[in-house]
Amino acid sequence: MMEKFFISAGIFTLISLSSCMNSPSSSNQDKSGQQPAENTNFTTVEVEILNDKAKDILDENIKGTVIADNFIWSEGPLWIDDKELLLFSDVPANVIYQWTPEDGLSEYLKPAGMTTPHEHDKEPGPNGLILNHQGELVICQHGDHALSIMNAPIEAPQVKFKVLANEYQGKRLNSPNDVIIDKQGQYYFTDPDYGLAKAEDKELPFNGVFKIDTSGILELLIDTISHPNGLAFSPDEQNLYIANSNHDSPIIYKYRLDHNGDILDGGVFFDFKPLLDRGPGGPDGFKLDSSGNIYTSGPGGVWIISPEGEPLARLIIENRVSNCALSKDEKTLFVTNTDKVLQIKLKN
């Protein structure tokens, strides 16, 4: 069954699919002279119901709001529920921004991804963000080739970092992209080469997925995914999902984990290849809710996929989606959407 309804009135226009799924277009680069700004305009988000199960997740009277815009490439949204604080990255601008319902938008941390004075002509900034079990901000830093902890309280950010990993077997990491943490306190992160400057030589011969165990040892889990990007655990942490942001192989993989969090086996979970004509974008960042449903960037917006790999719905959003974050009650979805950040009320 398929039906469509609108979150808010307006005109929706599809933009042709770019061959590169996760870097900003030249038109967005041209916006770099504009200052990011708070915005409270409604945006058109058409909801395509692909399965009636989606109605347990989505209300028919939901709406989307552009809460901030004029970014180059927004990424890595992190909603901190007890502080009612949204953090997110503008990767090319080398900035982390903050937004609250009460105070709106402001710069949070700069520089945040490349802290050295070297020139960088691509994507030097921060990307994925999480809080660890100590409440510290963990940042994927493209320009510094590092996964790092901000060495300052969340309420008083400073450009001070403790590096968790920046090399593997004596070779510099590429550009850590997204990160998660399990209940044991082990970090998992992807390391594609999107953030390497054009003048840099790639030192690792692969794009990897890594784990840092509780003793701080860095372990390579996977080196066979061409462009590993977003990743997430199933609610019971028995499975690890990883997105491949490759136009020729736009796949979300699923891997079974043992009790130590190491990979047992796995394979293709969902293939977006037959759906690329639905609009711009592909699998990039994603989140899971407490029922195991996946909210993932995909062609033409955000796709909601069941734990069984069944498409439930699509939030059709103009321009490419990079990532999303759920509120704790799972009623609100924050979406990084090229030069914008959206707040979508899923349920009242």
UniProtKB/TrEMBL annotation:
Needed co-factor(s): Zn(2+)
PANTHER family in alphabetical order: LACTONASE DRP35, LIPOPROTEIN-RELATED
Molecular function per GO: hydrolase activity; metal ion binding
InterPro entries: 6-blade_b-propeller_TolB-like, SGL, SMP-30, SMP-30/CGR1_Lactonase
Residues annotated as signal peptide: none
Organism placement in taxonomy: Bacteria, Pseudomonadati, Bacteroidota, Sphingobacteriia, Sphingobacteriales
Active-site residues, as the UniProt record annotates them: 284 (proton donor/acceptor)
Keywords assigned: Hydrolase, Metal-binding, Zinc
Pfam families for this protein: SGL
TM annotation in the entry: none
Record keyword Hydrolase present: yes
Free-text remark on how the cofactor is bound: Binds 1 divalent metal cation per subunit.
Superkingdom to which the source organism belongs: Bacteria
Keyword Metal-binding part of the UniProt annotation: yes
Protein name as it appears in the record: SMP-30/gluconolactonase/LRE family protein
Residue ranges of domain SMP-30/Gluconolactonase/LRE-like region in the record: 73-337
Residues that coordinate or bind substrate: 177
Binding site for a divalent metal cation: 75, 229, 284
